[in-house]
Design a protein that fits this description.
Layout: E1 2-4, E2 7-9, H1 21-25, E3 28-36, E4 39-40, H2 43-56, H3 67-80, E5 87-96, E6 109-118, E7 131-140, H4 154-165, E8 170-175, E9 180-183, E10 187-192, E11 195-198, H5 209-218, E12 225-228, H6 233-236, E13 241-246, E14 250-253, E15 256-257, E16 260-261, H7 265-280
Parallel strand pairs: 7-8, 7-15, 11-12
Antiparallel strand pairs: 1-2, 1-6, 3-4, 3-5, 5-6, 8-9, 10-11, 10-13, 13-14, 15-16
Length: about 280
């Protein structure tokens, strides 16, 4: 079952208009959310990021889009799909309803919620080989628009095809200033000695929820220095560790970039702290 505008509908019976603006113009935003045993991880952060994304897209937020209403819609669907006693991935998409071409003729908002079972309730460290490369064919634009999760993901799609064709596990994306911004599916952290760097949002990095939680964790660790600063491609091979963060994988260590191989000691330690934070909500 899926939730289509507040109605539970069988997936094979759900339909959207061919003039849906999310499909036609990328006029949509979404949140990827992790639910564990009927509890939404970091719900407040997801909710406020969704509201901020809708405002950036100049969507008129419906009066009933309260945290309580959306949480209930999500958890009702999770329960309906018998995922309330396990781990689930939830995608909440909000789109401007059809009407007009580039200039919309309506301010009404529709939404879709889908679920999918996850194999593990909490984050496990993947220590398998994980090789990445730079994707240089197209650039992320630095600025506010790139920080939100909109349906405009063409660069990520092309980068993933490039990775698949060249047998890489992931790719780094760069902005028009040739700074490394993020991976195809998450934020980037670079470790060198006792310093941890991550690209700032002003470089076009996604305003990731896991990124935010890791920043909170790292700031409490006195032996580490945190910098939100631009990262040059030349710094990647000088790092001790590189890892990617997102709400589904948690922390994904990178084992190889070009000729350089990396450790995962700090990534492992931070992942345990992230699991504690997730349990505590």
């Amino acid at each position: 079952m899926i939730n289509l505008d507040g109605n539970l509908v069988a997936e094979n019976e759900a339909s959207l208009s061919i003039t849906n603006r999310g499909f036609a113009y990328g006029d949509a935003v979404f949140e990827t959310i992790r639910v564990i045993n009927g509890k939404i991880m970091f719900w407040e952060d997801h909710y406020f990021r969704l509201m901020a994304s809708m405002r950036i897209m100049r969507m008129e937020i419906p009066a009933n889009f309260s945290p309580e209403f959306l949480e209930e819609e999500i958890l009702n669907l999770v329960k309906e799909n018998a995922l309330d006693s396990t781990a689930a991935r939830v995608k909440f998409s909000a789109y401007r309803k059809e009407g007009g071409y580039y200039r919309p003729t309506t301010r009404e908002i529709g939404f879709i919620i889908t679920t999918e079972e996850l194999s593990n309730a909490f984050y496990l460290l993947n220590e398998e080989n994980y090789e990445v490369e730079l994707f240089k064919d197209h650039y992320i634009t630095s600025g506010l628009f790139s920080t939100i999760k909109s349906n405009n993901r063409a660069i990520n799609v092309l980068g993933s095809i490039f990775a698949s064709e060249n047998e890489y596990d992931n790719c780094f994306l760069i902005n028009e200033k040739k700074n490394v911004v993020e991976a195809l599916n998450g934020n980037l952290f670079l470790v060198k000695g006792d310093k941890i760097k991550t690209p700032p949002l002003t470089d076009g990095a996604l305003n990731g929820i896991t990124r935010k939680k890791l920043l909170e964790i790292i700031k409490t660790l006195p032996d580490l220095t945190l910098e939100e600063t631009s990262i040059s491609p030349f710094e990647l091979q000088k790092a001790d560790e590189l890892f990617i963060t997102n709400v589904i994988a948690g922390i994904q260590p990178i084992t190889k970039y070009r000729k350089k191989k990396f450790d995962n000691k700090l990534a492992k330690d931070l992942l345990s702290k992230l699991n504690v934070k997730a349990r505590l909500g």
